[in-house]
Design a protein that fits this description.
Elements lengths: L2 H6 L5 H5 L5 H23 L3 H8 L2 H33 L5 H12 L2 H12 L6 H6 L8 H27 L2 H8 L4 H12 L1 H16 L3 H6 L10 H11 L3 H24 L8
Helix pairs in contact: 4-15, 5-9, 5-12, 6-9, 9-12, 10-11, 12-15, 14-15
């Protein structure tokens, strides 16, 4: 059988199938990129005094920062789901609009300090909405609520882009079939659409949670750095690192905790269930 005939039948010759299509130079650069990404993390774990790290991880500062970070990040991920899933559906079911997608991507490209300053000028006491919120006795800056708002701002694009891509990939065939059978748009959304994109939703939530957990710049500028109130793990790391001496152990301990959490979240985000076949 000739190569042309094999291709026409959908079967490639064994030699063609086994041949690598990746150039050697690409493999070398891939290895370099992996070293660049993994080496700093390995250095962090390899140069650590684990006895000191364990003691620092149980300190009051570390525990408070860890608990606050998980609480605010979980709440931020929930808010991102409530806002982001409908937004993803609205974007995916309409022709692609570069302006809308540019607005969704904006928090990804803004410097963190600019994001914090933008939130402050909108919701600060002297900001655009500050006086109106003050009339109701609401003051957001330098509160735990400000931490959550900052985390939602930076984390929402991750969920929207993930779910929107999945919605576009699946198309509307099942939704049209459900509508033809008399299902309402809301019922179709919960019974058809959400189950279809559940893997993308899971990975989007994991990425959103991870981004919220690691947020630093916007939180520092908009929420401040008050232990037990707004001091999340990244802020606690920064404070401990600047303290020098024994505080460096706390900084390393918190950093390693974030590394472990990040690995778990990436495993959740990339995990794909095995499909069984009868």
């Amino acid at each position: 059988m000739s190569t042309t005939a094999a291709r026409a039948d959908g079967h490639m010759p064994r030699t063609t199938r086994s041949a690598s299509t990746v150039p050697p130079w690409a493999l070398v650069l891939c290895a370099c990129s992996l070293v660049m990404l993994v080496a700093p993390v390995l250095a962090l774990t390899g140069q650590s005094d684990w006895e000191q790290v364990w003691a620092a991880a149980r300190s009051r500062v570390a525990v408070r920062a860890l608990v606050l970070s998980f609480e605010t990040s979980a709440l931020a991920a929930l808010i991102c789901a409530l806002l982001g899933i409908p937004a993803s559906l609205a974007l995916a079911r309409r022709p692609r609009q570069s302006v809308l997608h540019g607005l969704i991507l904006l928090p990804l490209v803004l410097p963190p300090m600019v994001s914090g300053l933008a939130l402050l000028t909108l919701l600060g006491k002297r900001g655009l909405l500050g006086p109106a919120l003050g009339g109701f006795g609401i003051s957001l800056p330098f509160t735990t609520a400000a931490v959550v708002i900052a985390q939602v701002f930076v984390g929402l694009p991750f969920l929207v882009l993930n779910v929107e891509s999945a919605l576009r990939a699946h198309g509307q065939t099942y939704e049209w079939a459900a509508a033809g059978l008399g299902s309402s748009p809301t019922r179709t959304f919960f019974r058809i659409t959400i189950p279809l994109v559940s893997p993308a939703l899971r990975s989007g939530l994991a990425l959103c949670f991870a981004r919220a957990l690691g947020e630093f710049g916007a939180t520092a500028l908009f929420a401040g750095n008050m232990p037990g109130v707004t001091q999340t793990m990244p802020l606690a790391i920064y404070t401990a690192f600047n303290g020098g001496g024994d505080s460096l152990g706390t900084a390393v301990a918190l950093a390693l905790e974030l590394v472990i959490v990040a690995i778990i979240l990436m495993a959740v985000a990339t995990w794909k269930p095995r499909h069984t076949h009868a």
